[in-house]
Amino acid sequence: MASITRALRPLSRTTPSARLASKRLATVRPIQSAYAFSTTPRRRDADLSELTPTPISLLSETETMMADMVSKFASEQIGPKVRDMDEAETMDPSVVEGLFEQGVMGIEIPEEFGGAGMNFTAAIVAIEELARVDPSVSVMVDVHNTLVNTAIMKYGDAQAHRTWLPKLSTGTVGSFCLSEPVSGSDAFALQTKAEKTADGYKINGSKMWITNAMESGIFIVFANLNPSAGYKGITAFIVEKGTPGFSIAKKEKKLGIRASSTCVLNFDDVVIPKSNILGEEGKGYKIAIEILNEGRIGIAAQMTGLALGAWEHAARYVWNDRKQFGQLIGEFQGMQHQIAQAYTEIAAARALVYNAARKKEAGQDFVKDAAMAKLYASQVAGRVAGSAVEWMGGMGFVREGIAEKMFRDSKIGAIYEGTSNIQLQTIAKMLQKQYTN
Ligand SMILES: Cc1cc2nc3c(=O)[nH]c(=O)nc-3n(C[C@H](O)[C@H](O)[C@H](O)COP(=O)(O)OP(=O)(O)OC[C@H]3O[C@@H](n4cnc5c(N)ncnc54)[C@H](O)[C@@H]3O)c2cc1C
């Protein structure tokens, strides 16, 4: 069967290589969504009026190369390991090494710091392509690129860039540590404290649900430096693995994305130098909000890729392998309608994801678009992965194929980086503001 991605995005005849691709910055073509279904005003200083509208799924040459390269790496290098990694609930170190070698751990990091120097949409298509094969690997790349790298690029000073970015793009995985046992959706109720020392800061507290923790060497940690100021005391710090007092207290056993590590971290009198602050004191809440707004587009891409991976797996089976009543089961109209409906929903989710990514790149307000993309893509992932199991009958239910894994993995899309209720709240709040006289 022809590749679905190729049906949805233009072909690239160039040899895939992110490193090669990085030699030229991606050409971004902002979509004139302000004239279509956009409800956010266009940024005043960006005049897009001369641009010809293009299909939202049209990628630049470098973005296409990234998609092709990651797709090849995922199917050849990750695919054969997916089942074992899921059963062992462990990320194979060779996969992590391969991700760094391919240049997908520093997609937006400038070349001078060892990164690929590409744009946000290149990261989005990489996350999507990885999720088509393994959502666990996809979330590792997503958190590392869209949360950790972005936070340091955006809020770190020149010294922070020189210190952390080369490590993050060439061999050290990163984690983003906001959630705690007492603070999930209400993230800024966090209890981890920081205090000033003579030449730095001391951190005490616990973090929960931290993705990549087993593999990471660099942790962005949110702690309150001035609890009497409430959320305005929250500050972001960088803690390295091996710092005395830092420990991984527990690795969670999960329903899905089992190869992705999710851990509880303890900080007992963890002393860090002054230079390990990220951004300004008391501005951690702003960093967390802004970074997560962008990060949500990454999770939406992960869910879109997951849905496509599950759909493709089942489509191949019903249209090639399984016959009942003397014909392929995918030839029954009852099946065909469901398969077409699911594919349409995936395409719609993808359009929301790319639109949010392009709006971010164009400097437009994208917060509502990111929330809608994450909400909808996680709903589609759940529906499509569930249908894929059913379309394959008993073969979908057993742990031989990937349908049951995709079904389990899909649930996380409605939980992390803001639950579905929280996305709905964001969307409703922005709409209400817009429609209140
Ligand atoms: C596998 C995994 C990986 C994660 N990775 C990370 C990570 O790397 N870094 C990190 O900081 N965090 C991470 N998280 C944490 C994640 O972001 C939180 O789990 C999420 O924000 C929800 O918080 P909670 O689990 O405490 O649920 P709760 O906040 O307790 O929510 C429980 C339910 O109540 C609903 N609810 C809560 N408040 C409202 C409201 N105001 N209105 C309506 N409904 C509401 C929610 O929608 C949800 O259905 C991860 C979580 C998981 C499971």
TrEMBL record:
CDD domains membership: SCAD_SBCAD
Subcellular location field: Mitochondrion matrix
Ranges where the Acyl-CoA oxidase/dehydrogenase middle domain occurs: 175-270
Cofactor field: FAD
Assembly and binders: Homotetramer.
Tagged with keyword Membrane: no
Protein name: Short/branched chain specific acyl-CoA dehydrogenase, mitochondrial
GO biological process, one term: fatty acid metabolic process
Biological or metabolic pathway of the protein: Amino-acid degradation; L-isoleucine degradation; Lipid metabolism; mitochondrial fatty acid beta-oxidation
Annotated EC: 1.3.8.5
Pfam families listed in its UniProt record: Acyl-CoA_dh_1, Acyl-CoA_dh_M, Acyl-CoA_dh_N
One GO cellular component term noted in the UniProt record for this chain: mitochondrial matrix
Enzymatic reactions: hexanoyl-CoA + oxidized [electron-transfer flavoprotein] + H(+) = (2E)-hexenoyl-CoA + reduced [electron-transfer flavoprotein]; (2R)-2-methylbutanoyl-CoA + oxidized [electron-transfer flavoprotein] + H(+) = ethylacryloyl-CoA + reduced [electron-transfer flavoprotein]; butanoyl-CoA + oxidized [electron-transfer flavoprotein] + H(+) = (2E)-butenoyl-CoA + reduced [electron-transfer flavoprotein]; 2-methylbutanoyl-CoA + oxidized [electron-transfer flavoprotein] + H(+) = (2E)-2-methylbut-2-enoyl-CoA + reduced [electron-transfer flavoprotein]
Gene source species: Penicillium brasilianum
Superkingdom: Eukaryota
Family label: Belongs to the acyl-CoA dehydrogenase family.
Key words of the record: Acetylation, FAD, Fatty acid metabolism, Flavoprotein, Lipid metabolism, Mitochondrion, Oxidoreductase, Phosphoprotein, Transit peptide
